[in-house]
Structure prediction request, 484 residues.
Amino acid sequence: MFSRQGKKAGITFSMKLSILYALFFAVSAVGLFGVAYYLMEDFAEQREREIIRDRIEEYRAWYQEGGLRALKARFERQANRSPDILFVRVVGPLNQVLFVSLPNGAKGLDAEKLKPFRRLEKDFWISIQDQAEKSAWTVGMAPLPGGLTLQVGKSATQVHELLSYFKGLFWAFVIPILLLAVFGGGFLTFRAIRPIRRLIQTVQHILRTGEMSLRVEEQAEGGEMNQLVSLFNQMLNRNQTLIQAMHNSLDNVAHDLRTPMTRLRGVAELAVQNPRDQKACQEALADCMEESERVLTMLNTLMDVAEAETGVMRLERESVHVADMIGHVADLYEVVAEEKGATLKTHTPSDLVIRADRTRLGQAVANLVDNSLKYIGEGGTIEISAGLNHGMAVISVTDDGLGIPPDEINQIWDRLYRGDHSRSERGLGLGLSFVKAIVEAHGGSADVKSRVNQGTTFSIRLPASPQGGEMRCQTSATSASSPT
Prediction:
């Protein structure tokens, strides 16, 4: 079904483009021919009129010098030497012919068409065509003193024959040109939509087999079509990555949910076995609440990570003073650091401002601090610092804890991943993936540098706000040590 629809759509689209090419070419050709024909005809007509106008002025001057008799004499002498085929006639006030000179070989000149004109006040032009004789004349009329009218005509047969030849030549070539336009347009269309045909075939194969690894072959040349193919392949890559990540997440969630659900079941069974022991039932309920809260936290974090990675997380961006935000996080973890005998320091510029979601960014930094506190020993130090680097605000959390093995450092950002050292610590394996998703949702990036048994530095890079201005660094330290 999909194959038939795809082929039908492709043929229809190709035919439409071919017809459009042919129509555009035909309209353009006819338009250009019309303009060229009009310009040629206008040029020829203007040239004929200029010749006739010169003769009218010449004959009018002769008439003014010696009257009609002088005009006749001088015209007869000039006519014998003139290469032009000219028709000359002088008409009286009552349309009586006073003088006429009709050249030998003149065809198609109907003098009757020149009679019924009233007295002229200015020059007048008329064209006479005889389809039977295949001849044409251009006649100019000018007033003479005494109410007379001078009529001078010139044969335009050769000009009309040339224009007719040009017109016939166009119609002789227009049909082959249209056929060439149709077939040429079809060939060009076929080549132009080749990337779309490959794309359609790939989609049909994916829908038929479900094989998401198939990609459309990309060509080296540029253009919108090849760009569409490239974007489609990128979309397939992203979809495949998301689907694979979803499968992995579901597997990890199923594995990680098995433990708390087993605990819930075990605790509930103990409570059911001892219904009269109120204290045991209360402890069982408390354990159930703790485990259910852990499961709920895991699911909520997974949803937040998924929203951030797919770009649908809603961020309430505002101007955030980094020093205030980091100070708030440090206050939250001050007690935890004291209990672990660690030192928590902050080193932040007072005027560094970024546009971000204050709550989400605070959660990201808090997760990094919480992660460092899990793997730092007694007497260790955690430092939260911030600064500008090439127009980017950089927030770093550095500790001198266990560090991360080289073979695990590229996997710590994955959802639900927990390294060997983290197995003994309570957690969901979602903290770092949550940090990465939040930072990338803000248009930034996160990275890590670590050496085993020497410490780890997590860095967040975000676009800095231009409101930052000059930054004055201030250092504050909160120390917590174990009782002596």
In short: Residues 1-10, 467-484 have pLDDT under 50 and may be disordered. The longest strand covers residues 135-144. The chain has nine helices and 13 strands.
